[in-house]
């Protein structure tokens, strides 16, 4: 006669062990989620970042200059999802003599990866970088305090960007408000070449053939002056002119999304695109404060 007691005991122990392992696994998953409550969207791939849109559906609303103070109105782009929690936000300024429409592709591109974006119009198209920096901060204040999408935004996770004098303005904004989580100057122009006071993680993207804000006298000195402790990267586009942000650019999109995801969303899944950085014939130079901490 065969005894069933040992078999039952074994089954009980195996079941208990499986349950313990499952509980431990769930606990680890919960712990990981608790470690980063700001993670949004699926695990990234290079092909997904190179696509014209990310995983989130996007809506758009206009902001009249008559309804705001401190900047000239603009366009807001935001994820339509109501099940993903709140999102980080970014304000972006166009360059000297330009309007938001000149770089408007950035709005839906960034919003579709899980950010609320306001592309601003400046008070006048001749506004200098310091003024544009103040306007970017005014736009963030409007976005988080008065806008129709304010409940979708986590006001502790904000960033700035801009093109040309708008890029110089994003450096000014980051200097004035060190609580910002990221800054992304594009072909930045500024008479101030030294940004040793910056504490905001900053990605500078320059054009190798820029004749208006040559990288040797603008982007590179800006990058070199920012302390490594702030976290910084410099991407230089091969043979690109000053106006590269005014047309859809794959690597600008890839690196902007990656930088914002990493420092606004604290999403370390994007480290792989920042360190050691992209490799392409379209890129003439890349520098970064690797490794990320």
Describe the fold and architecture.
With 293 residues, this protein is α/β, with parallel strands linked by helices. It has a single domain, classed as 3-Layer(aba) Sandwich (Rossmann fold). 33% of the residues lie in helices and 20% in strands. Strands 1-2-4-3-5-6-7-8-9 form a nine-stranded mixed beta sheet, with helices on both faces. α3 links the parallel β3 and β4. The N terminus is likely disordered.
Short précis:
This protein has helices at residues 5-35, 46-50, 106-111, 129-145, 165-176, 219-225, 250-263, 271-274, and strands at 58-63, 74-79, 87-93, 115-120, 153-163, 182-186, 202-207, 232-237, 283-288. By secondary structure, it is of the alpha/beta class. Strand 3 (87-93), helix 3 (106-111) and strand 4 (115-120) form a beta-alpha-beta unit.
Total number of distinct structural domains: 1
At CATH level 3, the topology is Rossmann fold
The amount of helix comes to 25-40%
Strand order of the largest sheet: 1-2-4-3-5-6-7-8-9
Radius of gyration: 22 Å
Could you tell me the number of beta strands? 9
CATH architecture level-2 label? 3-Layer(aba) Sandwich
SS-based structural class? alpha/beta
Q: Give the percentage of residues in beta strands.
A: 15-25%
Q: If helices are DSSP runs of H or I spanning 4 or more residues, what is the number of helices?
A: 8
**Secondary-structure element series:** HHEEEHEHEHEEHEHHE
Span between N and C termini?
Answer: 64 Å
CATH classification, class level? Alpha Beta
For the largest beta-sheet, the strand count, sense and barrel status come to: 9 strands, mixed
Morphology call = globular
Q: What's the average pLDDT?
A: 90
């Amino acid at each position: 006669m065969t005894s069933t007691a040992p078999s039952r005991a074994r089954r009980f122990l195996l079941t208990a062990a499986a349950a313990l392992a499952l509980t431990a696994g769930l606990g680890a998953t919960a712990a990981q989620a608790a470690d980063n409550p700001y993670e949004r969207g699926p695990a990234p791939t290079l092909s997904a970042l190179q696509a014209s849109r990310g995983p989130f559906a996007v809506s758009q609303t206009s902001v009249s200059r008559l309804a705001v103070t401190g900047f000239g109105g603009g366009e807001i782009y935001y994820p339509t999802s109501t099940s993903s929690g709140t999102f980080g936000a970014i304000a972006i300024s166009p360059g000297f003599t330009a309007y938001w429409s000149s770089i408007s592709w950035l709005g839906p591109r960034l919003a579709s990866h899980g950010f609320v974006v306001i592309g601003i119009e400046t008070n006048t198209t001749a506004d200098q970088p310091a003024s544009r920096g103040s306007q970017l901060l005014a736009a963030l204040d409007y976005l988080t305090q008065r806008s129709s999408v304010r409940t979708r935004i986590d006001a502790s996770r904000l960033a700035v960007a801009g093109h040309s004098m708008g890029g110089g303005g994003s450096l000014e904004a980051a200097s004035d408000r060190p609580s910002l989580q990221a800054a992304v100057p594009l072909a930045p122009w500024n008479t101030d070449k030294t940004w040793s006071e910056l504490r905001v993680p900053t990605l500078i993207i320059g054009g190798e053939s820029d004749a208006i804000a040559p990288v040797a006298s603008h982007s590179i000195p800006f990058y070199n002056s920012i302390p490594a402790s702030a976290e910084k990267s410099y991407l230089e586009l091969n043979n690109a002119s000053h106006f590269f942000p005014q047309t859809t650019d794959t690597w600008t999109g890839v690196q902007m999304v990656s930088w914002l995801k990493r420092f606004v969303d604290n999403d370390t899944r994007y480290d792989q695109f920042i360190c050691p950085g992209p490799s392409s014939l379209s890129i003439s130079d890349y520098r970064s404060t690797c490794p990320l901490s």
